[in-house]
């Protein structure tokens, strides 16, 4: 039984009650005092009939029907509500998921962007550092080469300047006292011969 | 007065001084011989090889007073005025080598040249002659110094002509 049926039953009951009441008033209008009694009797009869019609069983039945109908409506509404709730929950979940996904994607994108930027900055910094180090290395290399060349030239110059002493020292170490003056006489006489003029000049001019 | 002819064995002023002392001793002997008692024993002085050579070279009769006096004067003159050089060698020269050098100097520099000999092991070879005013470095050390450039080129492997031999070593 749906709502329409229930309304129809209640409507018919109300119509019957109205017709009965109208009949009572009609009868009352026809008689005087007796009318009054009759009216009372009718009223009592109507009350009895009403009590007879709307007895406990009928009321219980009506109550049961109403309860059942109400339960049915409640059940249907609960089902609808459940379905709506499920649908809403599903939609909410999807919405939440999509929102969260969207937010996460945005955040990830931002994060990725930040990481990318940071990476770029780090790469630039590293590149700068590498460039600086390379520059320093080249500078150092040049300085080292210059220093090395200077040192090398200094060593060579010193070696060349001291070469006579080195060879002389070597000769002394190698032959030492083994060369007798008699072996050197030709050399000595030759040297004296070369310096003869200067020696003679020195004797002439010098004070002895 | 004729200049004294020095023998090659007389090398240094020390030798001349020694000869002067010997000649003085000889004079003293002869003075003593005159004043000695007749018949007393006397010890004849022994002449050194240097004095013997010198007197023979110059034809001096050492028994004559005048000759000895003249020789003495000549020796003193040599001691005072003869040019004296200092010559250094790396090793001790033998007397023969020294005589040859002295002979060359007396023939080419001055007939009465005297030499004092020293040692300089650092010169390796050759000699260093020092006069009153100059030093003539005729050593191998100096020779190498003048050839430093040539030595450097030898080491580099591109030798040029060495510096001409016999460049004056005086300074």
Largest beta-sheet characterization of chain B: 4 strands, mixed
What oligomeric state do these chains adopt?
heterodimer
What class, by secondary structure content of chain A? Answer: mainly alpha
Radius of gyration of chain A, CA atoms, in whole angstroms: 69 Å
Q: State the shape of chain B.
A: elongated
Instruction: Give unreliable regions of chain B as ranges.
Output: 165-170
The tally of domains of chain B stands at: 2
Largest interface: A-B, 36 and 48 residues
Number of strands of chain A: 0
Give the strand order, joined by hyphens, for the main sheet of chain B: 2-1-3-4
Mean pLDDT of chain A, to the nearest integer, reads 84
Short description:
With 208 residues, chain A is mainly α. Chain A contains five helices and no strands. Chain A is rod-shaped, with a radius of gyration of 69 Å.
Description:
The complex is a heterodimer of chains A (208) and B (171). Chain A has 208 residues and is mainly α. Chain A has a domain at 3-117. Chain A has helices at residues 3-30, 33-53, 56-175, 181-194, 196-205. In chain A, helix 1 packs antiparallel against helix 2. The longest helix of chain A has 120 residues, at 56-175. Chain B has 171 residues and is an alpha+beta fold. Chain B folds into 2 domains: 13-81, no CATH class; 84-156, no CATH class. Chain B has 6 helices and 4 strands; from the N terminus they run αααβαβββαα. Chain B has helices spanning 13-35, 49-58, 65-81, 95-108, 140-146, 148-156; strands at 84-89, 114-119, 126-130, 135-139. In chain B, strands 2-1-3-4 form a 4-stranded mixed sheet. In chain B, helix 1 packs antiparallel against helix 3 (65-81). Chain B is elongated and about 85 Å long. Chain B starts with 12 loop residues before the first helix and ends in a 15-residue tail after the last helix. The model of chain B is unreliable at 165-170 (pLDDT under 50).
């Amino acid at each position: 039984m749906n709502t329409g049926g229930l309304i129809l039953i209640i409507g018919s009951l109300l119509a019957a009650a109205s017709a009965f009441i109208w009949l009572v008033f009609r009868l009352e209008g026809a008689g005087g005092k007796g009318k009054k009694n009759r009216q009372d009797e009718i009223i009592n009869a109507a009350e009895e009939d009403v009590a007879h019609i709307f007895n406990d069983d009928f009321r219980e039945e009506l109550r049961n029907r109403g309860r059942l109908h109400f339960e049915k409506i409640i059940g249907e509404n609960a089902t609808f509500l459940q379905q709506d709730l499920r649908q809403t929950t599903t939609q909410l979940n999807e919405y939440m998921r999509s929102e969260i996904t969207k937010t996460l994607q945005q955040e990830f994108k931002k994060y990725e962007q930040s990481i990318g930027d940071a990476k770029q900055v780090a790469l630039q910094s590293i590149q700068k550092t590498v460039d600086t180090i390379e520059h320093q290395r080249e500078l150092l290399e040049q300085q080292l080469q210059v220093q090395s060349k200077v040192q090398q030239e200094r060593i060579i110059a010193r070696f060349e300047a001291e070469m006579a002493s080195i060879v002389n020292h070597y000769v002394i170490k190698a032959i030492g006292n083994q060369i007798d003056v008699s072996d050197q006489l030709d050399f000595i006489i030759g040297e004296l011969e070369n310096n003869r003029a200067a020696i003679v000049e020195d004797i002439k001019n010098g004070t002895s | 007065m004729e200049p004294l002819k020095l023998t090659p064995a007389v090398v240094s002023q020390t030798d001349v001084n020694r000869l002067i002392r010997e000649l003085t001793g000889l004079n003293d002997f002869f003075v003593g011989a005159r004043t000695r008692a007749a018949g007393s024993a006397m010890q004849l002085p022994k002449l050194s090889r240097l004095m013997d050579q010198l007197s023979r070279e110059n034809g001096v009769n050492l028994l004559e007073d005048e000759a000895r006096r003249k020789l003495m004067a000549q020796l003193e003159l040599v001691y005072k005025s003869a040019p004296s050089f200092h010559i250094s060698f790396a090793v001790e020269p033998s007397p023969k080598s020294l005589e040859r050098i002295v002979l060359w100097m007396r023939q080419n520099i001055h007939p009465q040249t005297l030499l004092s000999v020293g040692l300089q092991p650092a010169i390796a070879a050759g000699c260093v002659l020092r006069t009153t005013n100059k030093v003539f470095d005729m050593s191998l050390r100096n020779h190498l110094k003048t050839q430093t450039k040539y030595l450097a080129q030898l080491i580099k492997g591109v030798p040029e002509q060495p510096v001409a031999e016999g460049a004056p070593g005086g300074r």
